[in-house]
Design brief:
With 245 residues, the chain is an alpha/beta fold. Helix content is 37%, strand content 18%. The strands form 2 sheets. A 6-stranded parallel beta sheet has the order 2-1-3-4-8-9, with helices on both faces. A 3-stranded antiparallel beta sheet has the order 5-6-7, with no helix packed on it. Helix 7 links the parallel strand 8 (185-190) and strand 9. Helix 2 (34-42) packs across helix 9 (226-244) and helix 3 (57-69) crosses helix 4. The longest helix is centred in the C-terminal third of the chain and has 19 residues, at 226-244.
């Protein structure tokens, strides 16, 4: 006969995951998640959107950790672009049940973000202007083709004008923990992403043993293909339950 305590533990471990934490990347802020947020809310999820300061990897991980600390149960942690590096480091948090990488970087422990680009083709349409203070922003004239080629002019302009510059030294910070080595992972790869070489995206996702979804879209796939991104998060929330059981 099963004890009441064991039955309660099993019920807790197999209960649906209802929390999602969204982490934006460089040259962006949290507002770009609006369509994904709206979709997830309609599905009954509690969603937290992190606002990364983009001042260092440590600062962005701290911001994400604060959001994870506020969760009342297990959560799916989602990162876009540079946010993939952030969730890789922050994802060992006990509240994280699974990781979703959206057009994202997926470094390994002991690596920097910059090292992920080695050996892969350059992306000439993704142009970063670096100021004297070391912070970089996407070139406004190249923003749409580099970041948001499949968005309307108005939507691309909004993302362009909402972008937050990143301290470029963050890309040289060494990742000390690769959460994907201990947490189940999913990846959404946009086939028209002008920020990354496609081979690089597949290399990182396959190394992380992520379940990969490909979709036609730009680097702003979380805006242009919000339903596909939300579907992947929903799948992760259901499948991560079984991985935790």
């Amino acid at each position: 006969m099963q004890s009441p305590g064991l039955a309660l533990l099993e019920k807790k471990m197999t209960a649906p995951i209802r929390n999602v934490v969204l982490v934006h990347g460089a040259f962006a802020d949290g507002s770009g998640w609006r369509k994904v947020y709206d979709d997830l809310i309609k599905r009954g999820y509690a969603v937290t959107i992190v606002q990364n300061p983009l001042t260092s990897l440590a600062d962005d991980v701290a911001a994400t950790t604060r959001a994870l600390n506020r969760q009342d149960g297990p959560a799916i942690l989602v990162g876009h672009s540079w946010g993939g590096t952030v969730i890789t480091e922050a994802g060992s948090h006990p509240n994280v049940a699974g990781l979703v990488y959206v057009a994202a970087l997926i470094p390994d422990a002991g690596q920097t973000t910059s090292e992920q680009y080695a050996g892969f083709a350059p992306t000439p349409d993704f142009v970063i202007d670096i100021a004297d203070d070391g912070f970089g922003a996407l070139n406004p004239e190249k923003f749409k083709i580099g970041f948001a080629a499949d968005l309307s002019d108005d939507d691309a302009a909004f993302l362009r004008d909402a972008q937050v510059p990143i301290n470029m030294s963050a890309f040289g910070a060494t990742v000390t923990n690769a959460a994907w080595r201990t947490k189940p992972s999913w990846a959404v790869i946009a086939t028209e992403d002008n920020a990354f070489d496609q081979a690089m995206l597949f290399h990182m996702a396959e190394r992380a043993m992520a379940k990969i979804t490909t979709v036609a879209g730009s680097h702003a796939v979380y805006v242009s293909q919000a339903k596909t991104v939300a579907d992947t998060i929903d799948t992760a929330a259901h499948e991560a339950v079984h991985d935790r059981a």
